[in-house]
C-alpha cells in the first residue's frame, strides 16, 4: 500500500514538474485585460503564447539561449512592461532595431514609407498635435540595438511605445499564437466563434 502511495506521489510530482517546465519555457496562457488590441484581440480573450520561439532564459541567467528567431515586424508579443516589470503587456511589433519610425496625423511611416495596417482601429477623429502628446504625431525615431517599438491595434486607446519608449528584447516573453477561450463579461457568455482563432 505504501509503495502504491509513493508511486502516485511520484507520478503527480513528475506531472507538476513537466507542467512547470512547459509553462516556464514552452507555452503559457495569457488573458487579455484591456481593449488596447481591439479589434484583433478582445477583452476576455484567453491566449496561448509561444515562449520557445524567441529563446529561453535559464534560471539565474540574463541572456536567452536557443533563440529560433527574434520578434519580427507584425508579431504580437507578450513582454514585461518597462515601467513595471511585474506586469505583462501585449502589443504588436511595429519597428525593430535600426528602423526609423514616425507618426504623422495618425499614419505610421517606417523607413520613409507609409505602413499599411489593415488591423488598426481608430476611434477618435481628432488629431493630437505633437505639442500635446505623441498619440498621433511623433518622431522620427530610430529604434536602438536590442530594442523594439510596439503599438496597440486600437491605436487611439493604447498606451504603448509612443508614450513610454522601447521594449528590450530580453524582456519579451513570447509570441501570441491562438485564442483557446473567449468570454464576453458584459453579455455573460462565451464567444464561441473566437475559439481556435490563430492570432495575426
Give structural attributes.
four-stranded antiparallel sheet, 32% strand, alpha+beta, 200 residues, eight-stranded antiparallel sheet, single chain
What's the arrangement of secondary structure elements?
Elements: H1 2-25, E1 27-31, E2 45-50, E3 76-80, E4 88-96, E5 100-104, E6 107-110, E7 113-114, E8 138-142, E9 147-151, H2 161-164, E10 167-168, E11 172-184, E12 189-190
Can you characterise this structure?
Helices cover 14% and strands 32% of the residues. The chain has 200 residues and is of the alpha+beta class. The chain has a single domain (2-194), classed as Umud Fragment, subunit A (Ribbon). The strands form 2 sheets. Strands 1, 2, 3, 4, 9, 10, 11 and 12 form an 8-stranded antiparallel sheet that branches. Strands 7-6-5-8 form a 4-stranded antiparallel sheet, with no helix packed on it. The radius of gyration is 20 Å and the shape is globular.
Fourth-level CATH superfamily:
Umud Fragment, subunit A
Question: For the report, how would you describe the main beta sheet?
Answer: 8 strands, antiparallel
The helix/strand class is: alpha+beta
Mean pLDDT: 90
Our estimate of the beta-strand percent is 25-35%
Low-confidence stretches: none
How many beta-strand elements? 12
Task: Describe the global form.
Answer: globular
Return the CATH architecture. Ribbon
CATH class: Mainly Beta
In percent, how helical is the residue content? 10-25%
Rg over alpha carbons: 20 Å
- The overall number of domains is 1
Amino acid at each position: 500500500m505504501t509503495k502504491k502511495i509513493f508511486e502516485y506521489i511520484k507520478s503527480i510530482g513528475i506531472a507538476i514538474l513537466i507542467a512547470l517546465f512547459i509553462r516556464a519555457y514552452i507555452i503559457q496562457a495569457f488573458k487579455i485585460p484591456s481593449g488596447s488590441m481591439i479589434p484583433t484581440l478582445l477583452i476576455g480573450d484567453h491566449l496561448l503564447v509561444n515562449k520557445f520561439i524567441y529563446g529561453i532564459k535559464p534560471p539565474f541567467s540574463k541572456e536567452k539561449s536557443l533563440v529560433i528567431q527574434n520578434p519580427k515586424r507584425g508579431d504580437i508579443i507578450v513582454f514585461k512592461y518597462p515601467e513595471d516589470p511585474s506586469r505583462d503587456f501585449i502589443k504588436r511589433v511595429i519597428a525593430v532595431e535600426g528602423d526609423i519610425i514616425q507618426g504623422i496625423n495618425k499614419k505610421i511611416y517606417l523607413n520613409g514609407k507609409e505602413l499599411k495596417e489593415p488591423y488598426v482601429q481608430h476611434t477618435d477623429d481628432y488629431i493630437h498635435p505633437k505639442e500635446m502628446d505623441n498619440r498621433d504625431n511623433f518622431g522620427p525615431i530610430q529604434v536602438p540595438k536590442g530594442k523594439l517599438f510596439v503599438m496597440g491595434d486600437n491605436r487611439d486607446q493604447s498606451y504603448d511605445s509612443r508614450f513610454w519608449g522601447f521594449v528590450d528584447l530580453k524582456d519579451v516573453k513570447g509570441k501570441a499564437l491562438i485564442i483557446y477561450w473567449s468570454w464576453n463579461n458584459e453579455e455573460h457568455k462565451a464567444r464561441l466563434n473566437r475559439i481556435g482563432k490563430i492570432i495575426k
